[in-house]
Write a structure and sequence with these properties.
By secondary structure, this protein is mainly α. The chain has one domain (25-90). It is built from four helices and two strands, in the order H-H-E-H-E-H. It has helices at residues 3-13, 16-39, 61-64, 77-87, and strands at 53-55, 72-74. A two-stranded antiparallel sheet has the order 1-2. The longest helix is centred in the N-terminal third of the chain and has 24 residues, at 16-39. It is elongated and about 70 Å long.
Length: 93
C-alpha cells in the first residue's frame, strides 16, 4: 500500500487511533450499562430473584388510598438508558 493509498483509507475510514478510541468508548459505555443493569437486578447476577418496580403515580396517592398494583411497572432497559444518559457527561469518554 502506498502512502497515498493509506491516506485515502484514513480519509474514508478515519485514523487507526480514532478507531481505537471509538472501540474503547463503546466498551466503556457497554460496561457501565451492564453495571447499572446489574445493580437494578436486570441481569442473571441478581441472586435473590427480586424485581424492582417504578411507581407511575405521585406518592401522595398512597395517602388517598387509590394506589393499586397497576400503578407500578417493572423496570427495564429503558431505565438503564435514562440513568446512563444522566451520568454520561461525567464519564471520560
Amino acid at each position: 500500500m502506498s502512502l497515498s493509498d493509506g491516506q485515502a483509507w484514513e480519509n474514508e475510514y478515519g485514523s487507526w487511533s480514532e478507531k481505537a478510541k471509538q472501540k474503547r468508548k463503546e466498551k466503556l459505555e457497554s460496561t457501565v450499562k451492564e453495571k447499572i443493569a446489574g445493580v437494578l437486578g436486570l441481569t442473571d447476577e441478581w441472586e435473590d430473584g427480586t424485581y424492582l418496580y417504578n411507581l407511575t403515580r405521585v406518592k401522595e396517592a398512597f395517602n388517598v388510598g387509590t394506589m393499586t398494583l397497576d400503578d407500578f411497572v417493572e423496570i427495564d432497559e429503558e431505565l438503564v438508558e435514562e440513568i446512563f444518559e444522566a451520568i454520561k457527561p461525567f464519564l471520560k469518554l
